[in-house]
Amino acid sequence: MNDKTVLVIDDEAHMRELVTAIFQKEGARVISAGTAQEGMDHFRLQEPDLVILDIMLPGEDGRNVCSAIREISDVPVILLTALSQGDEIVRGLDVGADDYVTKPFERQVLLARSRAVLRRAESQSRKLDNQSFDDGYLLVDLSNRQISVNGDDVRLSATEYDLLRFLIRNPGRVCTFAEILENVWGKEYKYSDEYVHVYIWHLRRKLERDPKNPRYLISEHSIGYRFAGEFNQANGEAKP
């Protein structure tokens, strides 16, 4: 993490100091903020590579801060939460967080999750793929990283893009939860099916005409998901 800038937003001074020390030991540059406003000010000025964001901020829900970040940036965001209930975690992921870590946490857990989200963000800018899909409504051009719906460009986060790319590279085949997690999130997310469900819902809301009755991203109950678009096998493009 020698070349990374990490923004820590947490109202508890001891937590800011702990997280700062963890990342500084790994060589990262760390900026800290105790309020949502201060955090957003730092975010706009410093352009961090990673945000560690507490859910419970004074006078502000950290999820609102995450939503504000998502309106202007795809930078990875990890939520710190003392709430371990499944629905609260899903709500955090649903506003665009890339991951969460439950307090109290182990140093290596936070670092492992941070490296994973940074790896996914960097993979989006490095990987090229010649495959494309275009049926007149949905266009996915992986070589140019262009996604459009009905002619309008669609912005995807790094995780959303990697998930869509993995499914499109396996058209018509049911990809199991385990396969998706290992290829998109990494081996350390082996039993975290909720990530897949939440991000499929993100993609459906952005790409499907009717997210509740999907045409492209099809669920196979208790098994996984498949991309249902029909491809021309000769050139990797969608059939007309």
> Strands of the largest sheet, in order across it?
2-1-3-6-7
Q: What distance separates the N and C termini? A: 46 Å
> Can you tell me the number of structural domains?
2
Report the mean per-residue pLDDT as an integer: 86
Q: CATH topology of the largest domain, anyone?
A: Rossmann fold
Q: What is the level-2 CATH architecture name of the largest domain?
A: 3-Layer(aba) Sandwich
Which stretches of 5+ consecutive residues score pLDDT under 50?
232-236
Radius of gyration: 18 Å
Per CATH, the superfamily of the largest domain is Response regulator
* Oligomeric status: single chain
Supply the number of helical segments: 8
CATH class category name of the largest domain: Alpha Beta
Q: What portion of residues belong to β-strands?
A: 15-25%
Order of helices and strands: EHEHEEEHEHEHEEEEHEHHEEEE
Describe the largest sheet: 5 strands, parallel
Structural class: alpha/beta
Q: What's the helical proportion of residues? A: 40-55%
Number of strands: 16
The outline comes out as globular
Overview of this protein structure:
Strand 1 (5-9), helix 1 and strand 2 (29-33) form a beta-alpha-beta unit. The protein has helices at 13-25, 36-46, 62-72, 86-94, 107-126, 158-168, 177-185, 193-207, and strands at residues 5-9, 29-33, 50-54, 56-57, 60-61, 77-81, 99-102, 132-134, 138-141, 146-149, 152-153, 175-176, 217-220, 224-227, 231-232, 237-238. It has two domains: 5-125, Rossmann fold (3-Layer(aba) Sandwich), CATH 3.40.50; 128-238, Winged helix-like DNA-binding domain superfamily/Winged helix DNA-binding domain (Arc Repressor Mutant, subunit A). The protein starts with a strand and ends with a strand. It has 240 residues and is α/β, with parallel strands linked by helices. It is built from eight helices and 16 strands.
